[in-house]
Amino acid sequence: MSTKAAVPATAAAGTRSLPHMQRTGDITQLIVDGKPFLILGGELGNSTASSADALSRVWPRLRRLHLNTVLAPIYWELIEPEEGAFDFTLVDRLIDDARQHEMRLVLLWFGAWKNSMSSYAPGWVKRDFKRFPRALKSDGSAVEILSPFSAETLAADGAAFAALMRHLRDYDSQRQTVLMVQVENEIGMIPEPRDHSPAAQAAFTSAVPKELMDHLTERGDALPPELRQRWQASRGKTAGTWAEVFGTTPQGEEVFTAWYFAKFVNDLARHSKAEYRLPLFVNAVLNRPGRAPGRYPAGGPLPHLIDVWQAGAPLIDMISPDIYFFNFSEMTDRYRRANNPLFVPEAMRTARAPANAMYAIAQQGAIGFSPFGIEAIEDPETNLLGQTYSALAHLAPLILEHQPMGDLIGLSPKVAYDGSVDDAAQTVSMGRYTLTVHFAGGKRPAADPAELTSGDPAMRGRDLPPAGGMIIRTGSDEYTIVGIGLTVTHAASDSGMQAGLLDVQEWVVREGRWQPHRWLNGDQTNQGREVFLSNERIGMLRVRLYQYR
Ligand code: DGJ
User: Fold this and answer.
1) Helices and strands per DSSP (H, E), number in the chain
2) Which of 186, 312, 200, 308 is nearest to 255 (CA)?
3) Is 457 in the pocket of ligand 1 (CB under 6 A)?
4) Nearest to 328 by CA among 439, 184, 464
5) How many beta carbons lie within 10 A of that of residue 523, not counting itself?
6) What local confidence, expressed as pLDDT, does residue 124 receive?
7) Is the dihedral of CA 518, 524, 527, 532 positive or negative?
8) What's the 333 CA to ligand 1 centre distance in angstroms?
9) Which letter does DSSP use for residue 477 in this model?
10) How far apart are CA 97 and CA 75, in angstroms?
11) Of all protein residues, whose CA lies closest to atom 10 belonging to ligand 1?
12) Which residue's CA is minimally distant from atom 6 of ligand 1?
């Protein structure tokens, strides 16, 4: 998918290229102003951007958190309160304020769907349920979700989204404060896995489109196991109705839902890219293991449905997970694919946010990270995420230079879905050295199950150990390490040799910037045996190694 956007788009008003994705080897980077860009982001709470004045109190704090990008919603109901009469005052103010605070924006189109529901549709859409039909349950009753099978809904949402993009082109193509746009938000069908409206019924009893069958056939064994299993309901039929190919279980029906949501989104993308060619992405609310589709929002761009979405929405540049689960590393593994760069637009902002940010960027080649409800962080200077972003902002040129070369290593203990932490030391290979990484915080049992599902999702996991970080290999015998709660020992990969620390330089923030501070040795390196980052704050060390026999 990302390869489709690899051709630099040209701004209408000049020759400067627009933000776009560029693939180098295994890594896809976001290119802004002709250079790779790392999103050190945060997503605003849903209602914060509805008042520029409310937001004006927040900007200085976001700066002090060292964010370079804010993810902010654009509300359909506020930009088009009357059909065809657009008001972009709020959008312009958002862009102006971001510029004034030297920040970029990723805009989130809260259009036909936001967290499954259609609560951001303007009143003239909500009230006219004949023209804009709702999805129906199997008993014929309506839910407050616009049916994706309505041509009128597609036309109205598409016109508004295209108007927004046209406006961005006119207002922002010179300065390019807006980097990317998210299409809708956490799409998914509840409380049943599919729409039963008459148009949906007609589609469900028709043949599965050949485009989808061809894509799935081509991917074959590379398809996620859950999707392969659903297809096996028909022993892998390559033609037939949805029920014939995928069965009539909630799992089979979910494939149908995913396809038609993806098609709708692709149509929106087509309209919008004709106006202004910014990278577009969709975000997924992850499904809890053991729950059936419909009990979770079905048919969104979920890990097991990425192929269906990619086939249905080839104009979407990226499929991104909102990760409110503790098993962050595992979830990033499912979304980082050769044709899908990782971007985490929403995540918990608690103890593991720093380690997760560094892991995603280093280990999974992410283009950025963005915890949710960012304006709620009140103590930017002492907050570990603020310290992390400060360090990553300093290291960004080095990170982006080394990301495509495979020189980055993400460090995180294994954290399972249930919140249990396996703090076992991990070995990582770095050229002619093998590093053993120990994580502070100890082994943790599973969290109270209530903690997995209740309360503010962005605030879960407050008591988890923060340990983690990243290594940037800068030469055959040297690296920079940034992180928290880590101890690293070194061995030579060649069995005839031994490894030692040549020197270790600590960097700290002085006068607002990261600078070399002191040389660590003696007790601070356990007499040359190890490199150590405290569990109290984000640290940064430049390490040089040597070998002897
Ligand atoms: C995920 C949604 O995408 C956000 O807009 C917000 O509703 C959060 N959940 C709340 O935790």
Assistant:
1) 16, 26
2) 308
3) yes
4) 464
5) 8
6) 98
7) negative
8) 22
9) T
10) 18
11) 457
12) 46
Nearest Cα residue to 146 out of 128, 164, 159, 161: 128
Smallest CA separation from ligand 1 atom 5, residue = 46
Q: Is the backbone of residue 185 left (phi > 0), alpha (psi -120 to 50) or beta?
A: beta
* CA 173 – ligand 1 centroid, Å: 29
Give the helix/strand (H/E) hosting 132. Answer: none
Q: Which two tokens stand for residue 47?
A: 């209602």
Residue nearest to atom 11 of ligand 1 (CA): 457
Cα separation, 498 vs 496, in Å, equals: 7
Q: How far apart are CA 178 and CA 548, in angstroms?
A: 52
Residue whose tokens read 């259009």: 111
Pocket test for ligand 1, best of 47, 74, 346, 452 (most atoms within 8 A of CB): 346
Find out whether the beta carbon of 184 lies less than 6 Å from any atom of ligand 1.
Answer: no
In this structure, which residue's CA is closest to atom 4 in ligand 1?
A: 46
Query: Do 335 and 319 form a contact (C-beta atoms < 8 A)?
Result: yes
The domains found in the chain, sorted by start residue, are 38-195+255-394 (3.20.20.80), 415-548 (2.60.220.20)
Q: Which two tokens stand for residue 488?
A: 């690293």
HEC-encoded secondary structure of 494-536: CCCCEEEEEEEEEEEEECCEEEEEEEECHHHHCCCCCEEECCC
Distance 447 CA to ligand 1 centre (A): 22
What are the C-alpha distances in Å from 40 to residues 31, 82, 168, 186?
A: 14, 36, 22, 21
* Integer Cα distance of 431 and 89 in angstroms: 54
What pLDDT does 14 receive?
52
Cβ within 8 Å of residue 284, ≥6 positions away: 186, 300, 301, 302, 303, 319, 320, 321, 322
Question: Whats the size of the chain, residue-wise?
Answer: 549
- Please list the helix, strand and coil fractions of the chain in percent, rounded to the nearest 5, in that order: 35, 30, 35
User: pTM for the full model?
Assistant: 0.96
Mean pLDDT by 10 residues, the chain (549 residues): 40 72 95 98 97 93 97 98 98 98 98 98 98 98 98 98 98 98 98 98 98 97 95 94 97 98 98 97 96 98 98 98 98 94 97 98 98 96 96 98 97 97 96 97 90 92 96 98 98 94 98 96 98 97 97
| Residue 8 pLDDT | 43
CA distances from 100 to 71, 250, 314, 384 (A): 16, 49, 35, 25
- Kindly give the distance from the C-alpha atom of residue 73 to the centroid of ligand 1, in angstroms, as a whole number: 11
CA distance 27 to 288: 29
- What confidence score (pLDDT) does residue 15 get? 62
**Cα-based angle 70, 359, 298 (whole degrees, multiple of 5):** 70
- Ligand 1 contacts CB of residue 80 (under 6 A): no
